[in-house]
Amino acid sequence: MKTIGFIGLGTMGKPMAATLLSKGYSVIVYNRTAEKAQDLVRQGADLAETPAEAARNADVLITMLSNDEVLLDVFYGEHGIMHGVRPGLTVIDCSTVSPDASRKLHRELAQHYADFLDAPVSGGPVAAENGTLLFMVGGSHSVLNEQLPLFEAMGSKVLYMGPSGAGSTAKLAHNTIVGINALGLIEGMSIAAKANLDAQQFLQVVMAGAAHSKQAELRGQKIIDRDFANMFSLQLMLKDLLLAGSLTDTLKLPAPLLKSATGVFQMGLSRGLGENDLNAVVQCYEEWMHTKITASQPLAEEDKPETVNPSPSARERRRNQRVLMNIKLLLSLYEWEQEGAFSGQHIEGTLFDLSEGGLQIVSNYPLTLDMFVVIHFPQEAELPPIIGRIIRITPDKNGFRYGCMLSGIPPYVRIKLEEYIRHKLETGTPTT
């Protein structure tokens, strides 16, 4: 049987290499953190000191690495794969990387009379352990046919997608759906939780209804159990969505759902959830709605909220007492031109409240429903102008209180806005 070099022994690479060992292949392993290779060495694998050594002594070299940068470094770095390439070697990259990176390596290896296939996988660690992965392959069809027994040793389905880069493109399109589906599940469960529905009962609705999905199967119960152990990390999900966004930009394809999903996962990363499973992004929703998604049962002692300081937080005081924040704003008004209408005027207002979906602003100037306003915060806030639409008007002793739904606010702006408001509430810093 062929000797297989395997580089990258993380969540997916290690069980894939173990599967090859169990099928009787001779396997040479390399990992930047050498300790991760020891279990495989005990199972019979040989340990390479460098990527070049693994390439030099293998008939087929498989790579499973985290991103473009790491992959290219393993190829071109000191003692990298390119230093061990020889004619007749086949390299199979199972990483999720950009199609451009795959095509670059394909061209480079062809100049050395070596073959390259981009063959990212789907199925997760369990499928890697069971040898039931799905491979989506780009490159030469004849090379794929030559290596088909190797693919079949690790997977239950091998699909040829087209020329070099096609496998990587398919994986990015696939993971776009994964990210959007996961957020659809989390958002639906958040709606149910905010409306005081039992999460366990609602998940049964999802599983039995048209909303049933692989994400519901894999992560629905884990969300309820608050199990964020890493199956596929949030930071890797975000990496794939960003790569998909670059691809859609190249294709000049609008992808509004992709961009929205990317924004939400960016929020999760900014909250330090990157190394958790991607379902940990539910904690962003829980923070926004001040409710946890759980079944209707008593909380375990370790999950109960701390009550060391019984005094209400500034946020709670604001919510309970509706305290006027007294943050001065400047509003630019825009409305469709018609008889009696106006556009481009500027008025003063005061921020009254920050809600989950927008702002409440007090002004003595009469506005109309569905009018768009551009909200300018004090210079100290270092916030860009924010667009809002008037969706509610309530008489107020200071004139009118306007509910403004924010439109298209980028995730980092929302975070910065919340931090600015929180700082004002906690410190009581005088406003201008």
Automatic annotation (TrEMBL):
It comes from the Bacteria. One of its GO terms (molecular function) is NAD binding. Residues 3-162 form the 6-phosphogluconate dehydrogenase NADP-binding domain. Residues 165-284 form the 3-hydroxyisobutyrate dehydrogenase-like NAD-binding domain. Residues 316-422 form the PilZ domain. Residues 296-317 are annotated as: Disordered. Pfam families: NAD_binding_11 (PF14833), NAD_binding_2 (PF03446), PilZ (PF07238). Transmembrane segments: none annotated. This is Tartronate semialdehyde reductase.
